[in-house]
Task: inverse folding
């Protein structure tokens, strides 16, 4: 795949990821020398022309989204056959990379909940502005060098609709998709479900449902109950387990009425989480799939 030397006002340094429909680059703004991550979607000209207004409107809403826990979108623009999104680059490690390095050993419970509550606050702020993330996965949670958790890579539905059915959907993302999201619904309730999956994983070391095939994962999310988290890590208090399992309810109406309610239930007890030796944790679930990518910089992509 040819790597351009520049895109718009940005100099390209490195190609991070490439697929038939898109490429992701590490670059630098020529005016400010700021490092950025640039994603370029190659799009059918006719469809891009038809959807131009919707794409511009959605990208403008994302660019206006400001919160300390959200990695900002700096610029978005369209060319004749491409859609380009530029966001800030922040050195750090993705949560996916950190979990992969621990080989299914849960994070210390206090650290795990701290990450989830910070990411949840960022998600709730987006929901209050009418924006759903649509792709809450550990790949899209950045742990900065200062120790802060930041959410990135909001799903841009108008671009993905141009690219076709299931565009931008990977096996890793399907492990965190609500049942209704397999049918194309992107909503705050689906974000709550995804955050429930992520909470389950950081507390137990396992995703609720493993697998690769779309049909397999849809069936599990739609019909199978997850192993209770306390069976995988007895250090998890009962109020935390209840909160996670409610967020993982199969239908939106059975979940909390909004994300803030889920976060309040997670943080709403005076019980203390106690880390137990890993050897005491018994599990009957199948081995989680091998991590797809543990390179920190390549996690910082727009999915």
Result:
């Amino acid at each position: 795949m040819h790597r351009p030397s520049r895109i718009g006002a940005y100099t390209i340094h490195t190609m991070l990821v490439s697929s038939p429909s898109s490429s992701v680059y590490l670059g630098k703004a020529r005016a400010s020398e700021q490092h950025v991550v640039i994603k370029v979607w190659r799009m059918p000209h006719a469809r891009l022309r038809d959807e131009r207004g919707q794409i511009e409107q959605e990208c403008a809403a994302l660019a206006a989204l400001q919160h300390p826990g959200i990695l900002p979108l700096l610029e978005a623009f369209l060319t004749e056959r491409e859609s380009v999104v530029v966001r800030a680059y922040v050195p750090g490690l993705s949560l996916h990379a950190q979990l992969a390095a621990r080989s299914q050993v849960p994070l210390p419970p206090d650290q795990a909940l701290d990450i989830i509550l910070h990411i949840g606050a960022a998600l709730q702020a987006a929901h209050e502005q009418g924006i759903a993330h649509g792709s809450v996965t550990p790949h899209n949670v950045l742990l900065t060098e200062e120790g802060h958790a930041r959410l990135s890579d909001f799903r841009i539905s108008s671009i993905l609709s141009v690219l076709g059915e299931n565009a931008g959907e990977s096996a890793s993302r399907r492990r965190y998709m609500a049942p209704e999201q397999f049918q194309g619904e992107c909503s705050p309730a689906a974000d709550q479900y995804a955050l429930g999956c992520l909470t389950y994983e950081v507390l137990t070391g396992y995703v609720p449902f493993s697998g690769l095939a779309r049909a397999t994962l849809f069936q599990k999310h739609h019909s199978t109950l997850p192993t209770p988290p306390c069976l995988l890590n007895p250090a998890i208090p009962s109020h935390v387990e209840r909160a996670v399992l409610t967020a993982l309810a199969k239908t939106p109406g059975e979940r909390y009425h909004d994300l803030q309610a889920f976060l309040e239930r997670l943080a709403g007890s005076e019980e203390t989480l106690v880390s137990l030796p890993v050897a005491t944790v018994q599990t009957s679930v199948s081995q989680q799939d091998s991590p797809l990518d543990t390179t920190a910089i390549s996690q910082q992509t727009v999915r």
Q: What stands out?
A: The chain has two domains: 8-88, 92-299. The mean pLDDT is 84.
